[in-house]
Specification:
This protein has 252 residues and is α/β, with parallel strands linked by helices. Helices cover 35% and strands 29% of the residues. The strands form 3 sheets. Strands 6-7-8-3-9-10 form a 6-stranded mixed β-sheet, sandwiched between helices. The protein has a 4-stranded antiparallel β-sheet with strand order 2-1-4-5, covered by helices on one side. The longest helix has 17 residues.
């Protein structure tokens, strides 16, 4: 389980997050949704220890994020940020192998190589494994970064807008892969999503944020309602059930 208590973040006297308190259950997929500037990425990055909160505490699997040994935490939790900029000219396999660093300390073992192969296969990247990152499309690179996170083989996976640069086909494929990772590999996945319908179809739980606050939290079915989504996004949203799935339609 992930817990956060009275977490806030302030820049130059302006509070962009919180204080917020809550918990994210172990297992399945939890989606963070809300308009731009709602604090979704800030909260996720604080949970991932890539950003220090102004105040508050976070625990992941019982470990205090601020006080835990970084390498120990990296074997429990992995994170993919929005802005991934690697200037070194790496192949896909080399990038994915970086995900094994908390286990290998830079000297990949046979077990590490197997995890890399599994991640490449899981993301459908085998045919691109020896290509350099700058030879890939944006969507292919995004899949490579997600494969790196999967290769880290942590129980908790944090993903900040992993559907960036993906077309519809590959966005659907990515969400199906993440669903499989939760169901078949037992991962706990926390993901920032902009597309409400992806959250509805693939997430177990949704946390809706607005203006730095968590204003709703519940199952996907509970959050996917006209009233809640219209309030969260400050624009008319109507929800319809289509083939058993609650689908948001944005009114013109």
């Amino acid at each position: 389980m992930i817990t956060f208590s009275d977490v806030s973040k302030t820049y130059d006297g302006t509070t962009v997050l919180g204080p917020v308190s809550g918990e994210i259950e172990k297992g399945g997929i939890t989606a963070l949704v809300g308009p731009n500037g709602a604090g979704k990425s800030t909260l996720l990055t604080i949970i991932g220890r890539l950003l220090e909160p102004t105040a508050g505490e976070v625990t992941v699997a019982g470990k205090d994020v601020a006080r835990s040994n970084p390498m120990d935490l990296a074997r429990t939790m992995s994170m993919l940020r929005q802005d991934n900029h690697i200037t070194a000219r790496l192949t896909v396999r080399e990038l994915v192998t970086f995900g094994r660093f908390p286990h290998s300390k830079g000297r990949p073992t046979r077990a590490c190589c197997m995890k890399v192969d599994e991640a490449l296969d899981f993301l459908g990247l085998n045919e691109y494994s020896e290509r350099f990152l700058d030879q890939l499309s944006g969507g292919q690179r995004q899949r490579a970064y997600v494969a790196m996170v999967l290769a880290q083989d942590t129980e908790y996976i944090l993903l900040d807008e992993p559907l960036n640069n993906l077309d519809m086909k590959h966005a659907v494929a990515m969400m199906k892969m993440l669903r499989r990772a939760a169901d078949e590999l037992g991962k706990t996945i926390v993901i920032v999503l902009h597309d409400l319908n992806f959250a509805s179809v693939y997430a177990d739980r949704i946390i809706a944020m607005r203006e730095g606050q968590m204003i709703y939290s519940g199952t996907a079915a509970e959050i996917m309602s006209d009233q809640i989504l219209t309030e969260v996004f400050d624009t008319p949203v109507s929800v319809h059930t289509i083939e058993g799935k609650r689908t948001a339609v944005y009114a013109m």
